[in-house]
Amino acid sequence: MEAPVQPGDRVAHYQVLGEIGRGGMGVIFRARDTRLVRDVALKCPWPHLASDATVRERFLREARSASQLSHPHIVPIFEILNWGGLPWLAMELVEGSNLRARVRDQGTLSLDDVRAKLSALAERFDATSGHTADPAVRAGIAGSTADLGAEIVADDDADNTTTAGEAGGTATPVNAGHSRRRRFDRGASR
Fold it and tell me: Nearest to residue 133, comparing CAs of 96, 87, 178?
């Protein structure tokens, strides 16, 4: 698929530097925040998907959900914006690669690395109470969740866009609490 922007393009006050990842729902770019003079990750859904109101709402719900969480292994959302007819998220840029790329490039992990990664995953799952995870490896050991694609569905969600048995985002492991349909406790993550 063709990316909605190319290096050198601007998205609001962000100068696009290059593409850093893509998945079934969208694409992530490295960009320079020209106001704060720092590099960020810019994420947007694929244009053909963003035209669907349900997909657009899920994307924005992911941002709102993530912005309510503060955890060392969850990538912070800096801003939600609309540019070029697409919703965009500006997030902390986490240097590194994902776990799949690390195993592909460096081979199997040591038992200590596996324990450390599973511990970090357990912390993220506990903090998000049922979100999917797309870990980006930080310093080769801990990771950060950048994809909260299976959004939180709370009792007060009047326009509930998620139906029973349905999850959004790129297919990744889902924790046991989510598969048992455990409710998210908003107070536990703040």
Answer: 178
- Encoding tokens for residue 164? 């029973």
Assigned architecture for domain 12-92: 2-Layer Sandwich (3.30)
* 134-174 tens-digit pLDDT: 444 333 334 444 554 433 333 344 444 444 444 444 444 43
- Is the CB of residue 51 less than 8 Å from the CB of residue 123? no
Question: What CA dihedral angle connects 72, 73, 79 and 83, to 10 degrees?
Answer: 160
**SS3 labels along 90-119:** EEECCCCCEHHHHHHHHCCCCHHHHHHHHH
**How far apart, in whole angstroms, are the C-alpha atoms of residue 76 and residue 105?**
27
pTM over 0.85: no
- Residues whose CB is less than 8 angstroms from the CB of residue 76 and which lie 6 or more positions away in sequence, other chains included: 66, 67, 70, 91, 92
The H or E element spanning position 138 is strand 135-138
Domain boundaries, the chain: 12-92, 99-155+167-181
CA separation (Å) from 5 to 11, 29, 164? 8, 9, 35
- Considering only CA atoms, which of 47, 85, 79, 65 is closest in space to residue 190? 65
